[in-house]
Amino acid sequence: MAEDETPIRFGIMGCAEIARKMSRAIHLSPNSTLVAISSRSIEKAKQFSIKNKLSENVKIYGSYDELLDDPLVDAVYMPLPTTLHLKWAVMAAKKHKHLLLEKPTALDVKVFDEMLEACESNGVQFMDASMWYHHPRTAIMKDLLSNSELFGRVKAIHSSSSYCGTQQFLENDIRVKPDLDSLGALGDTGWYCIGAILWAMNQKLPTTVTALPNTQQNSAGVILSCSASLHWQEEGTIATFYSSIISHETMELAVCGSNGTLHVKDFIIPYEESKATFSFTSGAKFVDLHIGWNVKPREVEVDSRLPQEAMMVKEFSGLVKGIKDGRLDPDMKWARTSRCTQLVLDAVKNSIDNDCKAVQM
Prior knowledge:
Blueprint: E1 8-13, H1 17-28, E2 32-38, H2 42-51, E3 59-61, H3 64-68, E4 75-78, H4 85-94, E5 98-101, H5 109-121, E6 126-128, H6 136-145, E7 154-164, H7 167-172, H8 184-200, E8 208-211, E9 216-217, E10 223-232, E11 237-244, E12 246-257, E13 260-264, E14 275-282, E15 298-303, H9 308-324, H10 333-353, E16 359-360
Parallel strand pairs: 1-2, 1-4, 2-3, 4-5, 5-6, 7-11
Antiparallel strand pairs: 7-12, 8-10, 8-16, 9-10, 10-11, 12-13, 13-14, 14-15
């Protein structure tokens, strides 16, 4: 690799299960390399290295501080519990480590803004690890939604993200522990649902957000399942979502426009890594006697050279490289995207906590 193509050197802070996928993504990305991992115990970090067959050149640390003090680490991927994000994200920024942060980014927008201020004041790139934004399918879908002739104006959106946790998961996972990830399903699967809705609306915040009266919580008050509606008064657009960790697997997004509709059944994690599909219909009407349709949905297939996680790492690393070379300032697009999602997530939580009263944005 030529000198001007020196890869961005990553450290992983925390050996959560999702870190296995991300260590693979860093390896597959052409402009990044993994140089260090850390855990709260050196033994856990060693086991992570063995399990994932990491190179012997990858340094292993038994504390997060040690990794952040490593001058060879350019950027960190941080899959820590949400309650730990503020402390370690701020510390990473102060050490001038660019930050790829696992979602949900924070417990509320006030905490998020503290992290973002640290990133901005230290000139580091911020991005949350919502990988689906970086799949080439997502860009193609956005082009179709932006086509006023084929799609028209967005009128209605529905998204869902759910899975059925095992009994062991529902008793022991950090996502059901109020002292670790108190947002539960809303922060886990709901982050994707809200992000997809705002993506379809070009990150414009809704006028009102209202939780629906079907929230289920565990004995500690952590959300296991919830739904909400979002309304944009000026556009006359409505959106709903369903988020759950006690229901069957879904990752669906449906967008209805004045001239067309778009459906995708696997928007978060495609059924296949090398390709992904969605359906699109434009100008559909019933035929005579209403016994059929004049057009069928068009199935669009999009190939991907790299897994979407590796595409995310590649894009993030390109931004970091530009900053290191003095060619670019941090790209604030990703921080704004995360902040909009956080604001709506906060509004849903507020509505849930107040007997499903509408929250004005």
